[in-house]
Amino acid sequence: MPPAAPAALVTARRRYSVTVPVQSVYPLLEPLLPLVRKPIQYAGGELNCVVKDWDSCDVRWALMYPDAYEVGLPNQGLQILYEVLNEQDGVLAERTYSVWQDLEALMREHSVPQFTVDGHRPVRAFDLLGVSFATELGYTNLLTALDLARIPLAATDRGDDDPIVLAGGHAAFNPEPIAEFIDGAVLGDGEEAVLAITALVRSWKAAGRPGGRDGLLLQLASRGGVYVPRFYDVSYRPDAAIGAVVPNRPGVPRSVAKHTVTDLDSWPYPARPLVPLAETVHERFSVEIFRGCTRGCRFCQAGMITRPVRERSITAIGSMVEAGLAASGFSEVGLLSLSSADHSEINEIAVDLADRYEGTNTGLSLPSTRVDAFNVTLANELSRNGRRSGLTFAPEGGSDRIRKVINKMVTEDDLIKTVTTAYASGWRQVKLYFMCGLPTETDEDVLAIAALARRVIQAGREATGRHDIRCTVSIGGFVPKPHTPFQWAAQCDHETVDARLKALGAAMRADRRYGKAIGFRYHDGKPSIVEGLLSRGDRRVAKVIRAVWEDGGRFDGWSESFSFERWEKCAAVALAAEGVDLAWYTTRERGYDEILPWDHLDAGLERDWLWQDWLASIDLSGAAEVDDCRWTPCFECGVCPAMGTEIETGPTGKRLLPLSVVQDGFSEARDLPGIKDLSGDQARSRVEGFPEPREDFRPEGDAAADATGAGAPGVSAAAARGASSPGGGVSRGA
Ligand code: SF4
């Protein structure tokens, strides 16, 4: 059990009442920082961070990414909401991240509460705590943050002075496992939703808080599009499946729908991206070039829940890149989306941006790229200016058969053609991403990955005449997700996944002509089973999460922190009286008639359409494929009529004009006194002039900025970054 709240903290809890000025906790925190790993991550003061006057605002949000700073800071969703909220008069938003165990222990010892990195204000003082879950493996970190903040873990134990705790992100499409710990969940796009919630909180406060906390939650549930779990009763059948989910208050909808933003051009965020002080997993300016995906990959929750496709126009993308680079000094632009090469004007975007930034050392990158959408133009433009970022393709399945099952719709020949283009364009290495444990998968489907990797190397050698060609095969365990056609599927047990991966490793090493050219990275099957429990769990799973956390579970997305044995043990104990177990939630196939824990949460997809697609995937005569509705007639998945939306795609036929003031004075200035002795990054910053943080953007504890060098005249944010490596591992949630 975590320690009880010390007396000093109980006193502090009263002091954090909204009617009393809120002080920075930095004076308490600062003496602890020299004692922990990478203290700079807690310092705040990044370029473009915002610290508003507390008393001039009447609605205050703490925004949390429940992982370490190095993973959380680049999160695009959080940065967008941070800007959208801070642009509003009378509204402030600050960020908070999970603290590592070394600082957690010291914070408990010295009564320092969970704090924001912007103003170092105690999280409990805010009106709202919005937590963005990209992965369910952050659930134990939520409990740590609540406990450190001295916010009761159970939502029903919270009082009027506690923040409203809201979950968002993809995991919020089934928040039932954490229903006990949150006050509400917001499904879908957050931009408009946070403003609607802010307006309701403001009017509720102005009206004298009618109905107290419950009154506000009722307004959020009935008028704010927020799912409030406590307003729904869940009953269970004798066979342990859900019997019914029924609203228990008048005015609460039977089904809660996701939010969908249309016309992305009118939401050009982030405009002032945060520049990290410490090392992070991505250090670039990312522009979301479209949202949603209708490719129809049956395993892909992100694609299903973000439909329909909404493109940002080429001109809006150009403006965002121009403003974002000027505001940040980043030298890489990531063109972000679920399948960026599918933008209707991706070639024009890549060509025109490369033209605009020719000679400036600004590079372009795409995240994982569809095999069948990569082309010679993209290859050329992504490598212009002498920079080649990594190329990742995701065939997902090793054989043509399994790719049909998952509706990936790319063949082995497509892949060979694509990697040949990449190798011929100068890349020496590509990364290929696969999954193991897919429905209907056999040993042969997985072993086919080895043969495919060998063909890839062979194609690269033939295209270039070189032998230093490499490819890295990266494999993750498949987890069936809510709101996808595979939501009914039995998850593959971890013993089978591990056996297949072992056999694959041996097959890759067997042929000495290729063995050294192929890298092999994989996770064993156990973390996927826990992710499966949390993804498709119901409210009974909360007991498991709490037990794991009380047993010391933290940072479950990190291999060095994750303990399958702990989860297995806690699940056995916590679920014993419920008539269910770990296997019931994971490796059990569901039937059409079973009420799924998320059936009352509406992602817009017709349940029957999902069911038919599931049946099509497992058809013994061969899986039927479904094309992309961007290029075929609508196949009536249900999203557009349900959400009142439609596909928004180009082409617009427009092009980006050259920028008038893009020039690289760096080369000429490199030999000047005061510049020539600096390192590359420092020199470039000095010459090109990163904007200085405004005085009111400095953290309240100025020692933070002083310690890092950030904000000091002439010292770049890049130069102030910590030099130590990430916390000994890579988060799977990244
Ligand atoms: S409703 Fe039709 S057009 Fe809209 S996303 Fe579904 S299939 Fe595509």
List keywords for this structure.
734 residues; alpha/beta; Rossmann fold; Transcription Regulator spoIIAA; four-stranded parallel sheet; 26 helices
Short description:
The chain is an alpha/beta fold and 734 residues long. It is 34% helix and 11% strand.
Provide the fold topology.
Blueprint: H1 7-15, H2 26-29, E1 59-65, H3 69-72, H4 76-86, E2 91-97, H5 101-109, E3 128-132, H6 139-149, E4 164-168, E5 184-185, H7 191-206, H8 212-223, E6 232-236, E7 242-247, E8 256-257, E9 285-288, E10 290-291, H9 301-305, E11 310-311, H10 314-328, E12 332-336, H11 346-356, E13 363-365, H12 376-382, E14 392-396, H13 400-405, H14 412-424, E15 429-436, H15 443-464, E16 470-477, H16 494-510, E17 518-522, H17 526-535, H18 542-550, H19 564-574, H20 582-586, E18 601-602, H21 607-617, H22 639-643, H23 666-669, H24 680-688, H25 703-708, H26 717-720
Parallel strand pairs: 1-2, 1-3, 3-4, 4-5, 8-18, 9-12, 12-13, 14-15, 15-16, 16-17
Antiparallel strand pairs: 6-7, 10-11
The structure holds iron/sulfur cluster.
The site of iron/sulfur cluster has 12 residues, from helix 22.
